[in-house]
Amino acid sequence: MTLGSQILQYIISGISIGSIYALVALGFNIIYNTTGIINFAQGEFVMLGGITAASLVTIFHVPILIAFLAAVIIVTAAGAFFERLAIHPLKNPSVITLIIITIAGSILLKGIAMFIWGKDTYFLPSFSGDRPIHFLGAAILPQTVWILGITGLVVILLSAFFKFTLAGKAMRAVASNRMAASLVGINVKKMVLFSFALSAAVGAVGGIIIAPIALMDYDKGAIFALKGFAVAALGGIGNFGGAIAAGLILGILEALGAGLISSHYKDAIALMVLLLVLFLKPSGIFGSAQESRLKKF
Amino acid sequence: MDSEVLLTIRNLDAYYGQAQALRNVSLHVNSGEIVTLIGANGAGKTTLLNSIAGVLNSISGKIFFEEEDIAGLPSEKVVARGLSLVPEGRQVFSPLTVLDNLFLGAYLRHGRKSKEKIEEDLQKIWGIFPVLKERMNGYAGTLSGGEQQMLAVSRALMARPRLLLLDEPSMGLAPLMVKEIFRHIAELPRQGTTVLLVEQNARAAFEVAGRGYVLETGRIVLQGSITELLDNKEIKRAYLGKGYREVWE
Ligand SMILES: Nc1ncnc2c1ncn2[C@@H]1O[C@H](COP(=O)(O)OP(=O)(O)OP(=O)(O)O)[C@@H](O)[C@H]1O
Ligand SMILES: [Mg+2]
Questions:
Q1: Residues B1-48 pLDDT 10s
Q2: pLDDT score for B193
Q3: For chain A, how many structural domains are there in total?
Q4: Residue B3 confidence (pLDDT)
Q5: d(Cα A288, Cα B99) in Å, to the nearest integer?
Q6: Exposed (0-12), middle (13-18) or buried (19+): which is A64, by Cβ within 10 Å?
């Protein structure tokens, strides 16, 4: 392989893992935008999605498409349940209380996953085989194509939802002004529930499509949460387009770093990006400073 | 029909933590009226409207709307009953378009059958405030203060309320804009919307209202028809300034 096609190879694998980071970051943003909370349990939804689909396919021999849908539905329900249990009962909680609760929630979800699945690693077969597609000297796994296609679809559906549907507009209204939203008749608490369910669904999709490339176990959530949070921060918290661009950037940086320097540094890159953003430009590279002054973080 | 009581408040107290902001407030609004409530900064006007609209729920006392007690209901349920609040400081959905703001004003009316009616109401709004039509695809946050006030009132009207609560619609607006907005407020009862208008700008409020209440440090201290209030020396001194009659007549 020439250096050129090798770099192309890294970039392609970076884009596919970056898509997952972008999906996790979208999950962060959906909840942030309706509630002002950073939900640190977001990574657990990714893990739950991947591990549920993998065990449905390998243990119960469910067809992949049905396992996909079932896992999304189960994790969506888990997201809604999490909101009802941990967030809903609080009256006027402070932001710091909410953050601690979502961290506690992520530990709890991880514990439940360990209880159900043990410490084993689960593997989901690729959606359509593993024979690589050759492109300019680089070998592309068919799963990469699935990842890009499904991520693209999720992004389009989400934007259409927020832009054109009544429920999507209502969620944006809640994000913009809670009091005014309830004054036009929007049930704010219902929208908060809905945002948790929606972001759990998005996280689950990410976990399922990445599972054939990254093995899944009960402990995978934290690293996805960290990467997703780094991406959300880099893209500007709450900024959807920023999350996608930042996800791809981080994914490519990681893949290049792992390929050209050493794979030991892979996870350190996300942390470095996060720290740099927080020190140098807390509003993210795509967020405006003025906007971030109005935010709670 | 016109003398039917729409809203009755009895012995309302409201609290912010330990601090009591309303004491034993009682008032009523008849169907078809414009009633104003005036008072200085911090008198409790916003607290009163927020208590009625369900924004504030640390209250005790009774609030009857169309003969049902709505005290303590959350805002979204109060709107559903036909009572809308235009909150202090307009509170438009800044990152949404003017059209979406209005569309969300009709949030509880959306359904298969109501599409045409909502469209009809939009046309009415365009008729009243043509500037909103011109800016309908612009973001609400980019409108001028006066335009935002027009939008806030219109958004509330999109719910087709039978009672509209207005919290200082004149705040921060140029006199000409105040005139324009109050001209439309004066029209509302004829279109089936009764109005409870909170103002610091007593002059503007007295121009459109038929009756009024005066709130001081959380208590109603005076009430009566506008003519009676205008004859009161204390009101002239405290809220209208000397030479009020000379200015307006
Ligand atoms: N969120 C709050 N927490 C604590 N006290 C409050 C709060 N909001 C208002 N108050 C207090 O309650 C009293 C009444 O306030 P309110 O806002 O109802 O007055 P207002 O008549 O609307 O004044 P303005 O004309 O300035 O709008 C004031 O003493 C105010 O300081
Ligand atoms: Mg006020």
A1: 446 899 999 999 999 999 999 999 999 999 999 999 999 999 999 999
A2: 96
A3: 1
A4: 67
A5: 25
A6: middle
Angle at A181 between CA B183 and CA B139, to 5 degrees: 65
Q: CATH no. for residue A190?
A: 1.10.3470
d(CA B41, ligand 1 centre) in Å:
8
* Measured distance CA(B11)–CA(B25) in Å, rounded: 5
Q: Is residue A182 within a helix (H) or strand (E), and if so which, with residue range?
A: helix A178-183
Q: Provide the pairing of β-strand A138-140 with B19-30.
A: unpaired
- The closest-lying atom of ligand 1 relative to the alpha carbon of residue B48 is 18
Paired sense of beta strands A138-140 and B83-86, if any: unpaired
Checking DSSP bridges between strand B83-86 and strand B163-167, what pairing results, if any? Answer: parallel
Per-residue DSSP letter, B240: I
Q: What is the pLDDT of residue A286?
A: 66
Mean pLDDT, residues A268-284 taken together:
77
How large is the ipTM? 0.92
pTM beyond 0.95: no
Domain range enclosing A138: 3-294
* Distance from chain centroid for Cα B53: 10
Q: Are strands B219-225 and B59-65 parallel, antiparallel or unpaired?
A: unpaired
Residue B237 Cα, gap to closest chain A Cα (Å): 36
Q: Which residue has the tokens 């991947």?
A: A50
For B4-8, B78-82, B233-237, which range has the lowest pLDDT when averaged over its residues? B233-237
A285-289, B67-71, B160-164: least confidently modelled range: A285-289
Contact A173 B93 (CB under 8 A): yes
- Non-local (6+) Cβ contacts of A165 within 8 A are none
CA A11 – CA A254 distance, rounded (Å): 9
CB contact (8 A) between residue A180 and residue B91: yes
Residue B247 has pLDDT above 50, yes or no: no
Q: How far apart are CA A194 and CA B2, in angstroms?
A: 43
B180-191 pLDDT, tens per residue?
Answer: 899 999 999 999
CB under 6 Å to ligand 1: residues?
Answer: B 16, 19, 21, 39, 41-47, 88, 200
Exposed / middle / buried, residue A188 (Cβ in 10 Å: 0-12, 13-18, 19+): buried
Query: Contact A25/A247 with Cβ under 8 angstroms?
Result: yes
Single-letter amino acid, residue A248: L
Q: Predicted confidence band at A292 (pLDDT cuts at 50, 70, 90)?
A: very low
User: Amino acid letter at B90?
Assistant: R
Find the DSSP H helices in B65-192: 75-80, 98-105, 115-128, 130-134, 145-157, 175-187
Stretch (H or E) spanning B215: strand B211-216
Backbone angles phi, psi at A239, to 5 degrees: -95, 110
Geometric angle at alpha carbon A75, from A167 and A121, rounded to 5°:
150
Angle at A274 between CA A192 and CA A232, to 5 degrees: 30
Residue B121: pLDDT over 90: yes
